[in-house]
Amino acid sequence: MKEITRNKLVMLLLVSILIASAGCSSSGDKARPGNSQESNDLSPITFTFFGADASPNWNKMQDAVGKKITEHTGVTIDAEYDITSAGGNDRISLMAASGDYPDLIYPKGNLSRLVDAGAMIDLTDLIEKHAPNLKKVYGEYFNRLKYSNDDQAIYWIPTNGAVNQTSFDARGGFSIQHRVVKELGYPQMKTIEDFENILREFYKKNPTTEDGQSTIPLTLVADGWRRMVTVTDPAVDATGAPGDGEYYINPQTYEAMLHYKRPEEKKYFRWLNKMFNEGLLDKESFVQKDDQYKAKIASGRVLALIDQDWAYGDAENALKAAGKDDKTYGHYPVSLDKSYKRTDFQKIGFDGYGIGITVNCKDPVRAIKFLDWLASEEGQILRNWGIEGEHYVVENGIRKIPEDIQKRKNKDNSTFSRETGIGLYYVFSAHYGDGVKDSTGNYYTTNFPEQIQANYSQAEKEALAGYGISTWKELFPSEREFPVKEWGAAYNMPVPTDSGDYNVIYQKIQDIIQKRIPEAIASSPGQFDTIYDNMLSEIDKVGAVKMEQQYTEWIKDRVRLWTGKDI
Q1: How far apart are alpha carbons 88 and 78 in whole angstroms?
Q2: Tens digit of pLDDT for each residue in 118-170?
Q3: Which residues pair with 228 in a beta bridge?
Q4: Which stretches does DSSP call E strand in 311-363?
Q5: Could you tell me which of 424, 420, 411, 397 has the C-alpha nearest to residue 455?
Q6: What pLDDT band is residue 454 in, cutting at 50, 70 and 90?
Q7: Nearest-angstrom CA–CA distance, 153 and 145
Q8: Same CATH fold, 174-344+456-563 and 45-165+350-385+424-436?
């Protein structure tokens, strides 16, 4: 009996030591991926985070959704966002050089730089052990999370792409103020010639605004990476090619070439040159900063844009808040001529930049569980809809946004987002796209036909009715007209770490394009061809062909990884 008692005492002592040891570990210790925690651990913890995109409405999680996330997870995010036009390049370069990383990072196009620096944790085991919601959401696309054929680790979970996305409305294309098309009787707008004639006619009648400012028919912005969105990418879109960043990828051979080499794009840029010389394109387009561009839009004097609405949304929200809904924009599928079909809605399967956990993370297990909760049905509904009873109601099993909440959202979406947190947390975890329904039969997101139409202002509804449609997407070619792209969106593809001098060549080419495209557009008509052709010679001299060949192999590798094809 004494022996049994002694054994029991030894066991109790060992248990006590283990418990005490566990209690000594603080959340500030650098836990490794194998460490375990209780799934319902709600003890307070703060994770540092860097996002390579700006988030102007971020409110340090003091918004309604942020507080609810902390309540459910115990997690607070201490976030830093890039506020420059560099996409986080400079900040991440410093991190890679110093080894000073945040707990979580959304590096955008700089994942490979961080992987090469040894900054990122392989998330494979963490997801397998602690993230059932992430596995469920990514489902058939889980293979696309792998880094490469040679390194099949998972270094980030894609979050700026939505799983099984169905877009119900257009957000880009060529955009014109509703008042313009209304005054002109809702004219046809299919080609750049149509677009140009509309601007010319309205501008001739309205050279100044009601408060005496000069009307601006069309403005662009070439401030850093914004040059791609408003100046050079539209040349691809208007000439019927799929959007793959700086490249055109042949869908049959997977061969990549810089899209500027396509003869039809030269015609597009020549058209911009014509617009510039005629005074229909803002003379400040290639020297203004992004905030100056937005200020012009917010003034209401810019008739037309060639941009994506997420890029100028703050300026458009300012117009709405000022009651100038007629000076906000509709979206039109303008092409170089009628022989081209825009591919705005071509499916990419699933692809996107993502968020990862760094080697400096305090507690990777707690971090992955946080990301996993956000990917749960409850977490996604919270991020998309807000709080039941406060931002939406459920009537007869259907989620609805009350009219007063919708009016607040429509009037000043920036303030609404800052106060509620709705839409601010997509970057932090996986999420389904528009058109996907949850277990209750409701849509995960608020972007579905009925809700989209409820969001339209009266001026926008009038413009849509003028064209006999209910959403802008109805003007565009359907996704059903195109095959799904096997390589996803090439611009999301991280450049492999063993890329040799690829990055050096790429940057040289970017510098040339950043200088020469604006120069060609702003030149006299007689100089355009010389400047453009010399640009193509310049980029070849610094290694464009070698770079294109390398990119072709990466595209083929991606197709092999994702599809198993032998190419």
Answers
A1: 17
A2: 999 999 999 999 999 999 999 999 989 999 888 999 999 999 999 999 999 99
A3: none
A4: 329-332, 354-357
A5: 411
A6: confident
A7: 8
A8: yes
Non-local CB neighbours of 355 within 8 Å, separated by 6+ positions: 104, 105, 106, 156, 157, 159, 371, 427, 428, 429
Strand 75-81 relative to strand 45-51: parallel, antiparallel, unpaired?
parallel
Which three-class secondary structure state does DSSP give residue 50? Answer: strand
Question: pTM of this prediction?
Answer: 0.81
What is residue 497's predicted lDDT score, i.e. its pLDDT?
66
Domain ranges of the chain: 45-165+350-385+424-436, 174-344+456-563
Question: Is beta strand 174-177 parallel, antiparallel or unpaired with respect to 329-332?
Answer: antiparallel
Rounded to whole angstroms, the Cα distance separating 459 from 147 reads 46
- For the chain, the maximum distance between any two Cα atoms, rounded to a whole number of angstroms, is 106
Name residue, tokens 């844009």: 305
Q: What is the CA radius of gyration of the chain?
A: 26
**Residue 325: Cβ-neighbour burial (10 angstroms; 0-12, 13-18, 19+):** buried
CB-CB contact of 488 with 351 (8 Å):
yes
β-sheet with 75-81: strand ranges across? 75-81, 45-51, 104-106, 354-357, 157-158
- Which element (helix H / strand E) includes 303? strand 302-306
Q: How many residues does the chain have?
A: 567
Whether 21 shows a pLDDT value over 90: the answer reads: no
CA–CA distances in Å: residue 419 to residues 65, 78, 408: 9, 17, 11
Write the DSSP assignment of 138-174 as a string of letters.
HGGGGGGGS--SS------EE-SS-BT----S---SE
Sequence-ordered list of residues with C-beta below 8 angstroms from that of 448, at least 6 positions apart, any chain: 168, 434, 435
CATH 2.60.40.200, applies to 174-344+456-563: no
Residues 6+ apart with CB under 8 A from 100: 94, 360
Residue type, 432: Y
Domain spanning 45-165+350-385+424-436, CATH architecture: 3-Layer(aba) Sandwich (3.40)
Helices (H), 279-375: 290-299, 309-321, 364-375
Q: Do the Cβ atoms of 321 and 412 come closer than 8 Å?
A: yes
Strands (E), 378-472: 393-395, 398-400
DSSP reduced 3-state for 62 = coil
State the alpha helices, DSSP H only, in 185-289: 192-205, 226-227, 233-237, 263-278
- CA–CA distances in Å: residue 475 to residues 25, 166, 194, 330, 341: 60, 16, 15, 11, 12
Residue 473: CA count within 13 A, CB half-sphere? 17
pLDDT band of residue 243 (cuts 50, 70, 90) is: very high
Please name which of 415, 384, 422, 370 lies closest in space to residue 64, comparing C-alpha atoms: 422
Q: Are 20 and 72 in contact (CB under 8 A)?
A: no
pLDDT tier at 39, thresholds 50, 70, 90: low
Cβ(158)–Cβ(350) below 8 Å: yes
Tell me which amino acid residue 494 is: P
